[in-house]
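Workshop exercise sheet. Pairs work together: one partner reads the sequence aloud, the other fills in the structure field after running the prediction. Swap roles for the next sheet.
Pair: D.N. / O.F.
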Amino acid sequence: MSSPSRRSAKTRIFRAPTASGGRLIHPPVQATPEAPADSIETLLDNNRLLRAAFDTRIGDLRLWELVAATRREVLTVATEYTASYRDASRPRDVADWIARPIIMGGHQPELFHPGVWLKNSALDAYARSLGGTAVNLIVDSDRCNATAVGVPVGTPAEAHLETVPFDAAAPDMAWEERGILDDHAFAAFGDRVSDLLAPFEPSPILRRWWPLVMERAAESHRLGLALAQARHILEARFGLETLELPVSELVRLPTVMVFTGWLLAHARELHEAYNAALADHRRTHRIRGRSRPMPDLIVRTDNADEGPWFEVPWWIWSRDDPRRRRVFANVATAGTLLLSDMETLRVELPISRDVAPSKWVDALSRMEGHELRLRPRALLTTLIARLLVADVFVHGIGGASYDRITDGIVQRLTGCDPPRHAVVSGTLRLPIDRLFPNDAGREPEREFAALHRQLRDLEYHPERHLPPLEALANDARELIVEKNRWIGTFPTPTLARRRCREIRAANEKLASHTQPIRRMLLDTAGPLASRIRAAKILGSREYPWCFFSEKSLRSFLLLENG
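Structure field:
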């Protein structure tokens, strides 16, 4: 297991393990003798103390009261959603169920790498350790970026990626809206990729798993849900007892709509808190670019009579035009909130601090009924999950880094510190060394660096690569003697420039005697460059989890005895 650098909990920097099979799970599921206080139990206890301080008023509720109601809704709806395609049941004692710890994580419904999948195993392990419930969010509000994967083809000497689509390309849209466009490519994907993988992984779980994806696609008619539900069914067969819930379902919950309404009623404050937290993050990490890690929210004043439009961290689209667009809020009219993409969509909502939360919920529900989608961006999604639901939220390394920005937003809006998160990641690579033992241990980059040093030495010290003086032709011997004479000459101000020219001239003339050696070295450069490219391709940690065998995955997920 990789260890994080020794910094305070809030500034600790985590890095993915480099070795195949390496896992980063912080805090560990079980406390260790070396760090008895560094455990999931301690994190849970600290988070509950932080949550007890949630006294911000959200409409006619205190924040902690809204949290209790949201947890009930999330557990109920997540159970119903999960039970629609695999076994899941609600405990008889609902009050006890809601009071128990909720461990939550989330990711897009894509073909992610095993290090991401490890989070789902950790959710289950944390929940079992704490006697709680694990809930995984399917972030279907995110954009469907790719419908193809790169499959490694070749050998350690020369390899490349072959792109294999599992569906046709489509215009920009969220996973929530994405159907399946190319039934032929979708049906052929599992076998086609498995055949290409055969030299590296003879029995990828993909071949047996993909028919389940096709089955779920026939039921859900959504690409993202088919991938997520089929994976979740496989997790059940592995023994994981987690619930899942799409973000598109989470944001429809009445309690979440109340919180959304409250945030929108404070649109200007949210806008300013978001940008201030981003500025703090850039200062802390010495980031100069104004677009990193994400751009500031902007203000538009297209129409002076309407007043400023503050960009807020949601996406908006319609079923007729599913392109995700930025959202701008105008609060110039008392008792009314205007939302617009500043293109074609414009919505007037009865949302303000003086309007009852029930009207916020009605207004947002009507938006959904009119097939207008308002979905939180990444930071806001985890803000909702961490603030309203999770006792512990489990991040990957990237999410953990960016969520310090979320911390800053919460602190500015509520005056409270949000619950802390756990961090889980891992690395699993294709078993190249086992399959190609003759190439095991080779380090082509180091070999290439050594080659570069040899060529440089050949240029500046050609005499080192030639036979002894007595075995050389007269012209070569005279050049070396003349060069050594100039090397031994003290570089006075008068002679320094000439000394340098004479040494360089001798090297250039000696180069004709080292050409065979140079050609031999250069002949190895091309194959070494190919090996470097192949090593990067074959050694990547980014291949989808379904490229690996069930045995490898079970071992990596700590389920080999399950």
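Discussion prompt: Residues 5 and 12 are 6 Å apart (CA to CA). What would you look at next?
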